[in-house]
């Protein structure tokens, strides 16, 4: 057994999650382009492709480069590329695989166009649309005008639109995933029709996250969904009702290093081991603590330092120094990013695998 | 210039920070054993040793192994080691450098003792004391009894006690750093005297963090301080009054990738780039946002996804797509852990260096 803490991935659960989402997409007649941000592993991307995914999504160019080097040949960078240096890297990569890049501004698109021209390439581009999440994405009402300007640039092929808003409506977190997903799909299909009416050759209408993908996929005219988290699932998705805790394929294995008092113990994983971007107690999920403790579901991973997880216990709880505790993290994507390795478990067999696309920031 | 986002370290500021803490320790007649968790870089540890540090502190055995492999030969693992596998690794390492390990339970100490015996080593041990932070550490009132039991174990040399509580008093965050530091030192010196009165050969009384080290060092009988953050400093320390923002040696360089609206822009660093363990708005610091934006001090890094930092702007703010923004993170230690590389700047010269002890969890 590896020394703790480490991230253990159950390949049977992962396989079932991959298969279920592939079936959902197939049943709705949409393409599935999983976001690889969750696993950051070329081998896992290949499992998704083998199950029917049409390609993968990444957020950063450096992630695309890792995935392409491992043999993945259809990649969408769902992120605006706006600097000459990265545009040149993208143009170069575009010469070796089918690459699609995101854009949400004229300034960024111009830089992409120029770099593609210098490289003798044509870059396939999708325009990112803000459907209420207020992150990147051109405001919905400005999309037609910007699409026309991008379409007019040389060396770019504007072939699609995409959006992300996760489990939110009008920029506010929601538990009404069906309404969120349907509205997301409808907004995007309506926009695609307006763009086509203006003569823009929009083929791809790409939407959807793990919580909303199954609903957005039902909207006629949506062509693609991009869920990421579903591959492992996590405590946040279980609380949203997207899966059960039993579907969560990734657990952090920790060791109790201290039980100084009946009412708490300390495990050897803190904020270097568990992501802190999904904080306990925040709306609408109101998660208790930073993870679900499989052995003691009533215990609460209440506080963390970098290397310490402080777990509030019932004083009767038998947790003692040396015990191993398995903890399902609140947010698996950002937790995976903290781990240099994952341990893939196929029944009794456990294989250590480097997370080769983790920590790729640029 | 590297592609963004990346972590830029100003070596002149770092040098001044290292020198200032070395002077503080020297003036108080205490040893300085910096916690390497902040930089996670052997070369930076060597700078601290050259400036007079007596050794270094780490939290995990794997960090000690990286530092020892790079030539650091006096390391304190300020963390309980409680499993046979790690105890064996520690005993092995102890054969090659001066190693001190933490302990806070009899069960853990017994495992250390047995592993040391099997390896033909004697392990130097310090007992961790809880002085109110309620993390690891034996409760203060139980320390004498536990120290006696550990002292009686073969193959262990119990030579010191240590504690951590940062800027807190009685388990509550405080801004009264002087009182926190003095009280921490006094509690520990008093305990050391009681232990010596019981015949225990306690030499080292190790305390102090970046916010409290300078105060704790003043207490007669304290022999060592273990600050970490001071090497780079950060926004949290500046808000505590330990340093100024100008002393902060580490900034994240980001690029504006989107300005969808006059009132916000988006940079290419989110929770994969900036630590989220020190959340905005929490007591007592009430930090606004996740970092200080050097170019626009009034702007607020308000929300983050993994790859997006959403910055609230004054509508008149000229930030535009392609601009580089330099951001001082709230918490530098956990931010460093997210970066595979840092870029060390010596005037105009910038060197990319792998953060070789980052992500070492076990």
Automatic annotation (TrEMBL), chains A, B:
The Swiss-Prot or TrEMBL record annotates one GO molecular function as: D-serine ammonia-lyase activity
Q: Which residues form the D-serine dehydratase-like domain?
A: 249-346
Name assigned to this protein: Amino acid aldolase
Q: Which Gene3D superfamilies match?
A: Alanine racemase, D-serine dehydratase-like domain
SUPFAM superfamilies with a match to the protein in the record: PLP-binding barrel
Identify its protein family.
Belongs to the DSD1 family.
- One GO BP annotation of this record: D-serine catabolic process
Q: Could you tell me the keywords of this UniProt record?
A: Lyase
Q: Which domain of life is it from?
A: Bacteria
